[in-house]
Amino acid sequence: MKAAEIRKMKIPQIEEALMDARHELLNLRFQTITGQLTDTSRIRFVRRDIARMETILREKQLAEMAEESEA
C-alpha cells in the first residue's frame, strides 16, 4: 500500500488496515516456520506497510491533538 493511499484514509480505516497487516504478518511467519511460504520477500513488504501505516497514523493523531489544543 502506498503512502498516498494511506493518507487518504481516515484514522479508523488505517487502524483496521494495520490490524489486517499484522494478522497477515503473523500468518506469513507461521508459513515460514512450517515451510509452506514460497515468496519470502512478502514478509519484508508487509513489515514495511505496517511501519508506513503506523507512521502516518501517528502523524494524523498528532495533527488532531494540535487542532484540539488550538481550539
From TrEMBL:
InterPro entries, per the entry: Ribosomal_protein_uL29 (IPR050063), Ribosomal_uL29 (IPR001854), Ribosomal_uL29_sf (IPR036049)
Protein name: Large ribosomal subunit protein uL29
Pfam families assigned: Ribosomal_L29
GO CC annotations, alphabetized: cytosolic large ribosomal subunit
GO biological process: translation
NCBIfam families, A to Z: L29 (TIGR00012)
Superkingdom of origin organism: Bacteria
Keywords: Ribonucleoprotein, Ribosomal protein
Native source species: Candidatus Brevifilum fermentans
Phylogenetic classification of the source organism: Bacteria, Bacillati, Chloroflexota, Anaerolineae, Anaerolineales
Single Gene Ontology MF annotation: structural constituent of ribosome
Family to which the UniProt record says this protein belongs: Belongs to the universal ribosomal protein uL29 family.
